[in-house]
Design a protein that fits this description.
Strand content: 15-25%
Helix content: 25-40%
Number of helices: 9
Largest sheet: 6 strands, mixed
Low-confidence stretches: 279-283
Number of strands: 12
Radius of gyration: 19 Å
Mean pLDDT: 93
Oligomer: single chain
């Protein structure tokens, strides 16, 4: 339902780097909506009271980022099916005096790949690297989009098993040992959902995973995606993308939930792409 003059926020810690206020204000201008969207940084121990205060101050919607995506689940009176499957929340809506949780990360990735980059996901043998919150967020949507076999590799195998069990797709989704990467064959789609590139140990991936027909995607963007995208180029991947488009598309789905309007995303994506490539600044 459209919410003009209501308050929105991106919630996290840290959150001063977030592009969400710029993105949502850009969306709002398409319909001349007077949008109040702020950055709200809360420590984990202040989360519950922070949500109460934000609602009392007129807050009706929040985007949620690290480290709160799982913790806010316990503060929701209702979880949408996407949030339950992802076991995390990135979109909060205040409805009838209570918070409702959803997750738009997966549909954001699928929309970016299919609508912006014209990638046909159907039947693609897919490797998902990592089994943290980002992987939980996108895996269900990838299966719904019709990918073929999904192999999940994580340095901690138990976490990969957890993700596969949540997916409940035994015919298509399987966990594999990280040390067996070189024996897994060729993939049509490789998604990096690990923390590599963000101060963590860089990925050491065999080139035999990929080829000219492979699409490689890093869920991070900017500097954090450079190492994986460099590997994708060296491995001969036909196409490689960072997570900037996913960021914009998941925001668009949140905006649709709150406002009942689906924004055009091309303009804000183009501006952020110029910013990421050092060609200008978002205002």
């Amino acid at each position: 339902m459209r919410q003009p003059h209501a308050r929105f926020a991106v919630l996290g810690q840290p959150v001063d780097h977030s592009l969400s206020p710029y993105i949502h204000k850009h969306f709002a201008r398409q319909w001349s909506i007077d949008l109040d969207y702020i950055r709200l940084e809360l420590a984990p121990e202040a989360l519950a009271q922070g949500l109460i205060r934000f609602a009392a101050d007129g807050g009706v919607g929040m985007n949620v980022t690290l480290p709160h995506k799982r913790a806010v689940m316990a503060l929701c009176s209702e979880l949408m099916p996407r949030a339950r499957r992802a076991q995390s929340v990135n979109t909060l809506s205040y409805i009838d005096g209570a918070w409702h949780g959803d997750n738009t990360d997966g549909i954001g990735l699928v929309n970016d790949l299919c609508m912006r980059h014209n990638i046909d996901l159907r039947g693609r043998r897919t490797l998902l690297l990592g089994a943290g919150g980002a992987a939980f967020g996108v895996a269900p949507a990838l299966l719904d989009a019709g990918i073929g076999e999904l192999l999940v590799c994580n340095r901690t195998t138990e976490r990969a098993d957890d993700l596969v069990n949540v997916l409940q797709e035994p015919a298509r989704a399987h966990a594999r040992y990280w040390q067996d990467l070189s024996e897994l064959g060729h993939f049509d789609l490789i998604i990096n959902a690990t923390s590599a590139g963000r101060g963590m140990q860089p990925l050491q991936l065999p080139f035999r995973l990929a080829g000219a027909s492979t699409v490689a995607v890093d869920l991070s963007y900017g500097m954090a995606a450079i190492d994986f995208l460099a590997w994708a180029q060296a491995a001969g991947c036909g196409e490689a993308f960072d997570g900037l488009g996913m960021l914009v598309e998941q925001a668009a789905e949140s905006f649709r939930i709150w406002q009942g309007l689906r924004p055009d995303t091309d303009g804000v994506y183009a501006e952020l792409r110029r910013l990421a490539d050092g060609e200008g600044a978002a205002e």
